[in-house]
Every structure is written in structure tokens, then in C-alpha cells.
Amino acid sequence: MTLFIRPYSSFKKKVSLLTILLLAQFTFSQNTPITISGESRTSSDFFKDLEDKSSYSFFYHDDWIEDLEIGRDFENTSISEILKTVLSNTQLNFYILEEEKRVFLLQNTVVYDELPPSFYQIEDSTGNTAVVENRGNLPPPIFYNQEVSQTAQRLPLIRIGKADQQNLRPTYTLDGRIVNAVSGEPIPDLAIRAKGSGRVTVTNEQGEYEMELPVGYNVISTSAMGIRDSEREVIMYNDGSLNLQLQESLEQLQEVVVEADAVSNVEEAVSGSEEITSEESKDIPLVLGERNILEVAKALPGISSAGEGATGLNVRGGKTDQNLVLLDDAVIYNPTHFFGIFQALNPFTTEKVNIYKGAPPVEFGGRLSSVLDIETKNGDTEKISGEGSIGPVTGNLALEIPIKEDTSSLIVGARGAYADWILKALDEESLNNSEASFFDGIVKYHHKFSENSEIRGTAYYSKDNFSITSDSLYNYSNRLGSVRWAHKLSEKSTGVLTASNSNYNFGIDYEDEGNSNFELDYTINESELRYKLNTRLNEVHTLDYGLSAKYYAVEPGSVEPKGSNSNVEPISIDREQALEGALFIGDEFKVSDKLLFNVGARYAFYAAMGEATQNTYQEGAPRSESTVQDTVSYDSGEFIKTYGGPEARVSARYLFTPDFSVKASFNNSYQFIHTLSNNTTVSPIDTWKLSDLNIKPQKGYQATLGFFKNFKENMYELSLEGYYKRMDDVLDFKTGADLLLNENVETEVLQGEGKAYGVEFLLKKNRGDLNGWLSYTYSRSKYRFDGETSEERINNGEFFPSNFDKPHDLSVIANYKFTRRYSVSANFVYQTGRPITYPVGTFRFNNADYVTFSDRNKFRIPDYYRLDLGINIEGNHKKNKLAHSFITIQVYNVLGRNNPYSVFFVTEDGEVKALQSSIFGVPIPSITYNFKF
């Protein structure tokens, strides 16, 4: 017999291993009854008395029984039953040598008095060696002698569970909760890996995790952005819990790379997802030195925009309105300032953004292309801190204010702009006398009631004012608020209740020297309530399920005369209202360590509501005022038209090796809200239109297949992913469509089909003096509108490129650190020129000259490329100083490339001439001072 127990230097009595080996063969009996008192006695006194009365010698470490509570008396009870009772709620086992009258207390483990099953091997009928059946059904011996990596924080060894010969399994369950050692906040999305086994899990929003580990010795490692990597030796004897408090990373992050850790890149079932943190964007050279997470997103494969300075993102061939952009669970309709050049998000209050290009989490819906889930930081609960910057265009400031230590905090951020000089510097003479300004502010309160309950509330407001002519002042604003309550219902279930409201408004204030002064106003407002639950049924199934409900209210536009002398007639378009709801359920189903499924289903429901009037049109005729068949009135709250149907979310991952996997996904979705725009690119004064009797919801279907590989302990990440997307009932508009303040806007709308497909390549280097990434996308995006009449067809009903179809898109981001304080950065972008419609001829009719145009989007503007360079200078790293500084010196468009934003045509002296408009046609230098205290 061998006693497998970690040696201790201070045993109460010495024991000879040889003696144990010689005497293990004897059977024993411990049935001699003993009467002993355990009430109000220390454990050491109890075991001394038990030793005297039983005549057995006990061997143990004093620390093992230091906190042991006996709490009862025993009468005529055998020594084995006494020990079973006393040690039942501890991690201690015992072993009795009857012949020697010796009792050994054992921490977690058991004594093996026969050789393990793997020792016995026989030859089968084929001559192959095989292991015989388990003799005695004993667990294998446990050894540990591996070394922990010196690059990670070394933590003490810990034993989990208590060995039980009646409950022997090859694996046991380890669960627990992981929090920040300083703030006490849970650490979500923390990767936990069992080294050498390929077993991986990730903490949820409450910092909780659960994973299966092999019996015996394991080394588990933890990693997350901003948290110091750690490794811990764990011995699994049975099921058990391990709660950890981890330290923040002591080295200030200076990586330029958008780092998706190995878990999300290789092991997770979900594909087409990216995470960007605000901290990671600080070294990337962008226009005028402004940190911009949305601009960084455009450097990732599958994400682009229609042009420099264009508002909105085009994700995998989708329109800009097909993206669901959330700020702390509330929709933000226009997350940009200054015609899309700056983001409307304070970089110092923004924590991160998760981008889902493929199958999004099951709780999200209502858009076809992507979800951008932006999360704000929680404030510091220990001390007041802040961060800010002063640049050539904007000034930013964010403060973190503790309200109650370790319990609640407030974060406040504000930005202001002084951007008029930029308009005068742009390569556009008509903008020389223009003006622009913007500001935004955000407040977030976070309160932790207990380990099982916390609440957060966010309020945000932004506003832009700009004048590009001498007689019109434009403005648009975002206002939103959200409250989120996360609570633990049981050991296996958590719930999150979210309420949010969003409001987007734009207006035009027109004044001239005549009597045509007016004020125009447009507003869309939505409110949502969502409840999501997460339940870990077992080690195989984890469920996400819940429901959501949303209410839309749209004021499509109104015009009021301005001033007593205005002769403008008031106009007001009827209000639009609608309800949107969904039931959803998802299951992360672990078939094996290699095969993982993430499957989900939603049922989306939508109802357009009165009070309203709707036109019906003659069947088979183009919609126009002359083909109106009837006008139907609907009372307040009455359903005008309902839509809906099931949506699938299916993702699968097969892990060939711990660092190489293949993933596939399929999803479909409905979109019940649309933008109305006949511009080539998105404008801040584009309006949103709800589906109704005459405008159907858009429907989308997407399938993906991808390969993901990591190298050199995740220093390099490589991915290759292809996708195919089909869209039905997408919107476009007739040439010359009149969309603003149109009571019958459906007469200007065409609905057709679209398709998009592409291949995305991404190579990242996450660590080292030189880091960054290279991304390349080959993609196509096409639409077809083939109505029953020629008026409802575009390009004779054939597929044609969309306004944002760019087959080739290449981005290179690089950062080289000379020292901890000095680094240089570069950003290079190349894109195929976007499609455009050109005039191809002229003709004369009734003594007037007219231009004939090509098929829509038949030609392209010149290709786009740009190089940006930056120098990053950190302040000294002295601990005791008022503030830590960071200076960026950048040059945007170093090559002075006059990239065309658009090409337009004018007629002069009977000739049609093409003119090119650019946003930044010269190098734009900037210097920004950042500080943190």
C-alpha cells in the first residue's frame, strides 16, 4: 500500500511508510464501542481523549483540525463511525491500520491499499496490450510536480473537494466567482483555461464560471484585458468551488492591436465577432488626433463606410440602417459628430464595443447586418480619478467619483468642440463661411447591493449644430437613458432586467431676406423593456432566454413659419406608432471538448398602430396619387398591419487542436424600421420610416464558414472567414424622389432583393515591440429592383452594385515601441472606389439641353488610399505625481492624397463637366495632450 499525501514538516507523530506498506495486507475492524463527549471541547482535546479511550494512535497536522467543531457527544459508537461523523463536513478523510492501532487523517485524498487499474495490463486476442477492468473501483493516484509559468502571477496550490470512493468520476465540476481585488467588481469575459487539456470557459457578466476538470492535478490560467494573468495549481478530488480576487495589470496598456483573446478567436462557437476597447484605440493615428472606436472598427475585415467623412458603417454588404447600435442597452441612432468625422462617444468613459457581424446573441434583433454593443465604464469606488484631453478640435474630460466605498460610484463625461476652422480648411469653397459645433455628455451610476445584485443607470445627450449655407442652420441630437438590474436567482440562474428610452431629433432653421423663414423638425422615439435569464442546467447545457417589448413613436416632420412676416404654410405629417416584441431562447450545447453548438431561436412580432390613415393602391399598377384605390382610417391603438416570424441563431465550432478550429453559422432576421434617403451617403437629416400597410419589413439570411488559428501562445492570430447574405424587401428610391415631408412616401419607395458575399482575412500580432494587424476583405454587395412596370425597375431589373460595394478593402495597423514611453504608429488604408452613376450623353428637346445617364452605379470613382503616421509620447512613470500625461503627434493623410468623396457633374457652355469633391485633400497634422489622474 502507498500513502499518497503531500509531506508536511510538523506531524504530531512520525510514521514509517515502510510500516504502512508491510501492514496494509491485514484486515481490520473498528467496531469496539466508545463513549466520548464532544460538547464544548476543543478539537485537540477531543482527539487526545479519543486517542486515550480507543488505544489508537492518531497522525495528523495540527492545522487541519484547528477550526474543527465537534458539537456533540458519542455513546457506544465505533471509532470509524465517530470519525465519519466528525469529519463529514470537512475536507479530511481517514485511514485505519487495525493491526498497528493507528489512524491517519488525510487532507482531501484517500490511501490506496492496492495498485491502480492502469498498472494491470494483459494482452487481448489480437496481441494488443489492454488495461483490465477497474479493480476495486478506486480513483487513480494523484501526483503533482509541474512548474507554474514565471510570466504569470504565482498563486498557492489549492485542493478542491473531498475524495469519495462511492463517487468516483474521471472529471469533476469546478465553479466560482472572480472579482477585481481592488474594486470588488465582477470580472466578465475572463478566459479560464486548463493548461494542457484544451478545456476553456469564460466568466459571465456576474464574474461566475463553471468548468469540468480531470480528476487530480491541474494548472488553470486566467487572462483578460486589464487584468494580470495568473496561474493556480488545483487538485480535483471532487466537485467544489474556487472564488478568486485578481489584480489589475500593473503595466499600462500600450498595445495598438484590437486583441480578441484565444477563447473568442478559437474556442468560442460564435464567429464574426470582434471586441475593441477604448484604451486600445489611443495609439492609432486618426484624423485630428481623436480616439475613435468606430473608425478603428472600419479597419477590421467586413466593415467599411461609403466614404471619408460618411456617417454610419456598412457591415458585410449591408446598409447603414441595418446596424443596431447600443450604448448601455439603449439605441443610439446617430453615433457620430461633424458629418461622421468624429464619434459621438467620449473615449474616456467608453469601456469597449462588441461587434457581431455573424449570428448575434439571441437577445438582439431588429436589424439585418450587425450589432454594435457599446459599454460604458463603471466608476472607481475607491478614489476620485479622471482623464481628459485637449486637442485641435475637441476638449474631453471624464471623472470617476466614488459615492460609497466598494459599493457605488458615478462616472461623468463631457466633450466640447471648436471646429469652425476645419470647414474653412476643407477643399470646398462653399464651406468657407460655414460653422459647426458639437458637444456630448454622459452620466453613469453603478450600485452594488450585494454579491448577488447590482444596478446601473446611464443618461446620455449629444447635439450638433452646423451651417453650410448662409441662410440655414441645421441641428441634430441624441438623447437616451437606460436602467439595468442584474440579480442572481439561484446558484445556477441569473437575471437581467433592462429598461431604456432613446430619442433622435433633427431640425432646420431657415432664414433669408424674404418671407420664407421656417422651422422644420423631425423626431423618432423608442422605449424598450427586456428581461433576460441565464441558467446553467449542467456541464453540457447553458440557457439564455427571455422576452422584450419595444414601442416606437415617430413624428415624420413638421414645418412652422418663423416670424410674423413669414408666408410659409404650416405642414405636419401624421404621427407613426408601432409595437415590436420578441421571445427568445438560446442554448450553448457542449457535445464534447471538440464540438460546441450555440443554438437559439427568436420569434419577432411587429404591429403598426393607429391613429393613422393609409392608402391602398390598384393591383399591378405603380404607386402614385393617380392609382390610389382607397384611403383607410385607423383609430388610436388599432393595429394597421402585423408582421413577424421565427428567427434562427445557429453557430458551431469544431476544435481540431487547442489552437485551431473551424466555425460555421446561420441566422435570419427581420427589420421593421428603415431610413429614407436618396443621397449617395448617409446624412444627419435622413428620416426613419416604420413598416406599415404599404412598406414591408426587410428580411435577411446569412451563412458563414471560417477557420481560426493561433500561433506561438496566442501571439499571432489568423482567421479566414467567408459569408453569403441574402436580403428581401430592401428599400431604394425612384430617381428624384421627394422624401422629406411627403405624406405618401410609399409612392417614392421601391422594395427589392439584395445579395452580399465575401471572404475576410485577418492576421494579428498581439504582443511584442512591433504589434498590430493586417486585414483584407474581398466582398460584393448588389441589389435588384424588378417591378411589374418600368417605373418600378432599376437597370432593367438586373442586379447592380450598391452605393457601398467595394470589392477590395485592405487595412494595415502597426505600432512599434522603442521604449515604454516612446512609440510610433502607422495606419494604411486601400479601398476600391465606390460605384457612381455617370452622364453618358446629352440631347436637345424644345430648345433645352438634357443629360442622359448610365445605368445606376455602372462606373466607379477613383480608388481610395491613405497613410497616417503618429508619434506617441508617454509621460514619466513616477508614482507620486499630480497627473500622468500622454502626448500624440499625428499626421493624417501624410501623402496628401486627394481622395474623392464624390464626383458630380455640371453643364457649362453646353458641355457637361465632371467635378470631384474631397474631404481632406492635404496632410492634416495634429497634436493632442492627454492626462490622467
TrEMBL record:
Residues 1-29 form the signal peptide. InterPro entries: Beta-barrel_TonB (IPR000531), Beta-barrel_TonB_sf (IPR036942), CarboxyPept-like_regulatory (IPR008969), Plug_dom (IPR012910), Plug_dom_sf (IPR037066), TonB-dep_rcpt-like (IPR039426). Residues 289-367 form the TonB-dependent receptor plug domain. Gene3D superfamilies: Carboxypeptidase-like, regulatory domain, TonB-dependent receptor, beta-barrel domain, TonB-dependent receptor, plug domain. It holds the Pfam family TonB_dep_Rec_b-barrel. The keyword Transferase does not apply. It is found in: Cell outer membrane. GO terms for biological process: siderophore transmembrane transport. GO terms for molecular function: siderophore uptake transmembrane transporter activity. Its main location: membrane. Keywords: Cell outer membrane, Membrane, Receptor, Signal, TonB box, Transmembrane, Transmembrane beta strand, Transport. It is a multi-pass membrane protein. Residues 444-893 form the TonB-dependent receptor-like beta-barrel domain. The keyword Cytoplasm does not apply. GO terms for cellular component: cell outer membrane. Belongs to the TonB-dependent receptor family. This is TonB-dependent receptor. It comes from Flagellimonas lutimaris.
